UniProtKB/TrEMBL annotation:
Keywords: Signal. It holds the Pfam family DUF3103. Residues 1-24 form the signal peptide. It comes from the Bacteria. This is DUF3103 family protein. InterPro entries: DUF3103 (IPR021452). It comes from Moritella marina ATCC 15381.
Amino acid sequence: MKKVTLAMLVIAPLTLINSSFVSAAQSNDTKQIIQKQPEHGISVSNAKREIALELSRQYIQILPTLQSDINRYNLTVNAEQVLQSSGVATKALHKSEQAIRSAKGLSTRSAQSSAFMRVENPNIVQFRLADASMLSDWQQGVLPLFAFEPAGNDKDWANIEAYDVDGNIQLLDVYQLPDRPVFVVELDKQQTVHEGLAVMREILAQNGDSAKPLKSVHLQRSASRTADKPISTTVINQISLQDDQEPWISGAAEVYAIVNGVNPSRDEPVLDIIEMPYLDYAEKEYYPNQVVIHWERYRWAAADMILMEHDDGTNYKELATALLSAAETILKSIPDPEVQGFAIVATITNGILKALPDAWFTNDDDFVDAYYTLQEGETYTNHSGSGGNARATFTPLVIDPR
């Protein structure tokens, strides 16, 4: 993804109208909600380091399973399945995965599925052959390396650590694809984001109805069909992201959106979390036709959208808490929201962005872009985000009751 800095954000003119209502002290206090938290990225990185080292030591045992599962159509395998199929003990993997789940604010407990059995949380660690160009050499017997994505901003990475089959450390270039096969120990981004966004929705829901996922909003049939009303929505028909030089180890992206506005019936922020699992790679057009805004949930028929990308260091519990606190702080600071009207929405968005650590605006694995003042009934064709990274087409869609 293209790196975006705060200086690149083109703030809508309406934002300036409300700037006097937001004090610097409030913004700084909200930002500290995240910044005072432990550096979870280090914990996740260390857990992946331990798995990579163990993988290198067990390579001979797991090789047959890897050979049967890795091919030109599939470069990724589930870590636990590989180890279990190879007869390798998975206790160390489970310990590392629990540490990762804890650091990311995900559930570490088994889920009760019936009175007779418990279902474990899905395994979120996987092994990926870094690039399809490595497949032939690996299949011909070239011994691979076992790497993991470092913590922090990729601009600060000096190198990529990897282990050979003897457990020795090898240092790889950050941007130059290695000339030998490399297996990357990584998180299953789609599963991690799916669970993480569920955590965020649960926390946001504690503030009322503000986090109901759009996919769970159903048409409620009344006793009388005449009481049913059309549902006004906005659909994202096309979207693409720009790109610049990215580390080879990062793999596909996992993007999600935060739609924010003001509750139509009370002075409270509304934050909807939207999964966008299809948005994997930059410089590629996607045509999801996905409903992203239900207008009955937003006052003044206006909302903003922030695009975010999964980051290994994100703790979803802390992120949701920080976003909600920022939005509430901004809204409470405005004496009379009705006087300002929908210009308030942009002010809330800016408060949310200010609550995020500065580093998130220079790391492509965090903040992607923002859309200010999307309005009900409007069509936006090839509409650029404020940072110039995203380009999308939004169209209105009215869903008639059956």
